Amino acid sequence: MPENETIIVKYQVLSIDKIDTPEGLPEDDWYCYIIGYGKSKVEGKKPGTLNDVTRHAETVAKDLNERSQSKKSVYAPRQNQNKNNKVVPENTALK
Q1: Cα–Cα distance between 35 and 84 in angstroms, integer?
Q2: Is the four-CA dihedral 12, 18, 21, 27 of positive or negative sign?
Q3: Does some domain include residue 77?
Q4: Among positive and negative, which fits the CA dihedral 48, 75, 11, 38?
Q5: Cα dihedral 25/27/28/32 (nearest 10)
Q6: CA-to-CA distance for 10 and 61, rounded, in angstroms?
Q7: What is the pLDDT of residues 20-65, one digit of tens each?
Q8: Per the domain annotation, does 58 fall within a domain?
Q9: Global pTM?
Q10: CB 3.0–4.6 Å: which of 27, 55, 61, 83 could bond 11 by disulfide?
Q11: Cβ distance 16 to 60 under 8 Å?
């Protein structure tokens, strides 16, 4: 993204709470963070210090905001993926 473009902040870190260590994972301080915009919510769990998890959640929110501003979605099908496939109309005879 060019330096002179502004990013409109939509997604924000809504909360970060300390949680019990998820089952089967190494003992550590674990946190659950929630990032949201309107009705959309993203929940993540991460080990580390509160400061580390906060920085991580803020980075995820920033990435979501940058993606929402791009002209193309990273999840949309590629427009040119079938450019070499030719479709022959049903009533056309092949020569």
Answers
A1: 41
A2: positive
A3: no
A4: negative
A5: 40
A6: 8
A7: 999 999 889 999 999 999 999 999 999 999 999 999 999 999 999 9
A8: yes
A9: 0.65
A10: 61
A11: no
